[in-house]
Amino acid sequence: MAFGCTEAEALLHGTNEVIERHILSCFFMAVCSIGPAMDLYTPSEELLTSALQDNPSAIESANKLQIIIIKDMLGVYFTVAFPKAGPGDLHISPIGSGCSLDIRTAIQRATTEQFQSHSLYGIVEEAIDKTTLDLLSSSDKLKGLIGFAHIRSLSLPSLDQPLTDFTASVPQQLKTLQNNLLREGKTIFHRTVARYSGNNVVSQCYVPGLERFNIIRNGCLVAPQHILRKTSKSLHLEQQK
């Protein structure tokens, strides 16, 4: 679900969120070697500075993170950020992720979300992470998601700052995302959950067929889509016999 000052804005935020979860899931599966490898990038110093609006404190904190950009899925920029030092005294590394047609926005969302996840860490989060750690530790393939050990210190190719500023309006961005998904055979379904004064809206978005493997890092058991489809097909064939 996502909030917006207009229906289009709520739908845009919701669609970005669904796509973000999908790419994060694909990234997790790549880390676990149960999905295809992905091309990974990192922001140049200039791009990171611009994305964080020259904020010295934010830049200092961001420099302690491995910031990874994926730019080859569904026509968006996706960013994930986690500590270069690993989990430290926490059960698992706190991460942040972000998705946008604008690379600066994606970087800003991921880094600030990581800052928040670390700063707001409390008893509830500790309990969830303990459950997650137990799950991830039980599998050789999933262990890589605990602290991203083999990728947190990688030297990645950098992406430079765009030559022009991002100026697409909310309706234009939404149309672009819809077209990007349609090219992959995917459709956005949505419903309005709540309306408030001043045209403020909460929307719920769903795109069938996108991955939700990201919830594995919340301690939830989940299977990748290709396994579910294979299982469903096998059951269908079995029923036809």
From TrEMBL:
Sequence ranges assigned to domain YcaO in this UniProt record: 1-241
Pfam families cross-referenced by the UniProt entry: YcaO
PROSITE patterns for the chain: YCAO
Top-rank lineage group of the source organism: Bacteria
Protein name: YcaO domain-containing protein
